[in-house]
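Exam revision sheet. Question 4 asks you to relate a sequence to its structure. Input first:
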Amino acid sequence: PAFAPVVMNICWILGAVLAPYTGKTLEKMIYAVAIATFLSGLVQVIIHIPVLRRKELYYRPILQFSDPGLKLVLARMGPVVFGLAVVQINVLVDSIIAVGFAAPQDGPGYFHFAGMAINYPMKAGAASVLYYSDRLIQFPLGVFGIAMATAIFPLFSTHAVREDWNTFSITFNRALKFMLLIGIPASLAIIMLREPIVDLIYRRKQFDAESAYRTSRVIFFYAIGIWAYCGLHVLIRAFYSVKDTITPVKIGAICVGLDFVLNLSLIWVLREGGLALSTAISAIVQIIILTIILQKRVRIKIGSEVVVSILKTVTASVAMAIACWFVLRLFPASDGGGSLYFKGLRLFAPMTAAFAAFAVTSILLKSEEFRHLIRLSLRKS
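Answer key, structure tokens:
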């Protein structure tokens, strides 16, 4: 289950890459991407079937709506879906505001309100810029955040059923440390490499220098909250394991409102970047509030080892950013020109240096979480 989001991302990316070969019209290409997105969801389900069969678990649909277990699932489904989808709801709100407050392609650059002519805060194409940026942010979220949350949920549930709150607390602290070990450097790495990423993936034909600049700028603001987006999936599942589906909904609703207010405030200063920053701030506020509530609810103690782990991760991430910056200077931007090989080198060379710097610094600082990840990777290989 933890690998399913990765499969979905791979499928829709392949659909986007192959779309130009499905037809010359834009309409056909859009249909191709839409079909690929639908099939990616189908593939997510299909890949589980062989594994379930090997474990002698077979799915047989039974239409028995009076089953108490099914009733319980249906009753809790709404709050669970909303709680996990708050970030996506915020992104949807961002897109709606981007459409409503962006200047028309061939229309006037202002609108009338209360008898006044007010300039649009964003240029045409703001919604597209947000979409392109969000797709790139979803990759680390799908690979790491949702994957870890899916893997850790059964442990949370087991400890909660046994009312073993000490072990629950230890498991939560460990999950938190691993999530931040991945989330913090991921945030910083995407911020540092946003321009080469956009240049390699998007920069061609009608996606000109201005589009690339606007997209990389939005990625910067979205990336500030990557660690929070990832952490929320773990934190919310901790609430679900103690049968509390309402608290994440309440806090989520408050944060959706916060995102809306920040959107309408920041777009006048940061344009579409303000929409992305609003989502990041909302996620950070949400994770802080939920952590405080969970600590009081099940008496979780975030020990000093968590603080020490965070300091080590931040230090290693700073070293990573410095190494990335130095290597990136060796490959100046080509303003959309240059071969695919050069664009790839401009992205992967600093990325390799960044990972090496992060790894060396983590080892020197004796980061237990990083060492565990290395041991786990070697064991699987």
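Marking note for examiners. Residues 1-61 form one domain.
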